[in-house]
Amino acid sequence: MDEVVGPPVLELDGVSCRVPGRDLFAGAELSLGAGESVAVTGASGSGKSTLLMCVLGMAEPAAGTVRVAGADLYGMPERRRVRHRRDHVGMVFQFGELLPELTPVENVALAGLLGGQGRADAYGEAKSLLDELGVPTGSSPATDTLSGGERQRTAVARALINKPSLLLADEPTGSLDQEHRDSVAELLFSLPRSRDCALLLVTHDPAVARRADRQVAIAEGTLLPVAASKDRA
Ligand SMILES: Nc1ncnc2c1ncn2[C@@H]1O[C@H](COP(=O)(O)OP(=O)(O)OP(=O)(O)O)[C@@H](O)[C@H]1O
């Protein structure tokens, strides 16, 4: 198999997460390189979203180190962490979390503007990403008129506009019917290679998880590798 795995983009070293009154997991170890995808599964309430928030720099772990693009995320001041996230991380949520009154191009371009791109560059890049991902932009419809699949593709374009080295996705196909689920999953799992980024994706859906290069599960209070054959069909 011609695996293309680059230097680590994400490294978890002994990471433990707690919420008030409860330990979720401890001693989590994970290394994820550019070009590679990992699916995170686990029972409801096991801490999958908390793990993503921790990698996003928004939930400091109780112990351990989170390194993104070579930098210790919680060893830097908050303002630098926000900048580091904008420069290196893209995020796709279950429901897209787009601004419904804006057009898809505006939703995507806004992320580019916030990432420091000039107006012409951000709008040009937003349009070309949406064209590439198959989202209609011609008549500039409001985002809330798009199909569920088109909305998630718009969310993917928004996550990509600042050329992240790490892409995070929390149940990105959870709100879609099977046809859209398959096409959005196919798109997401093509990105590590086509965009030279790493993908860490949380899902309840075994068919989606099987598309990843590797699977891990939060179980028994830690992060465990899951033995599973890769299924890209
Ligand atoms: N800020 C918080 N304060 C208290 N409890 C929290 C907080 N955030 C999350 N929790 C609890 O921590 C546990 C893990 O939540 P999390 O959302 O990470 O789980 P999950 O594995 O993603 O669940 P699901 O699959 O249902 O989305 C849950 O029991 C949740 O209620």
From TrEMBL:
Keyword RNA-binding: no
GO molecular function: ATP binding; ATP hydrolysis activity; transmembrane transporter activity
Occurrences of domain ABC transporter (ranges): 10-233
InterPro entries assigned to the protein according to its UniProt record, in alphabetical order: AAA+_ATPase (IPR003593), ABC_transporter-like_ATP-bd (IPR003439), ABC_transpr_LolD-like (IPR015854), P-loop_NTPase (IPR027417)
Entry keyword set: ATP-binding, Nucleotide-binding
Keyword ATP-binding: yes
GO cellular component: plasma membrane
Domain of life: Bacteria
Pfam family of the protein (one): ABC_tran
PANTHER family per record: IMPORT ATP-BINDING PROTEIN, TRANSPORTER, PUTATIVE-RELATED
Name of the protein this chain belongs to: ATP-binding cassette domain-containing protein
Lineage: Bacteria, Bacillati, Actinomycetota, Actinomycetes, Kitasatosporales
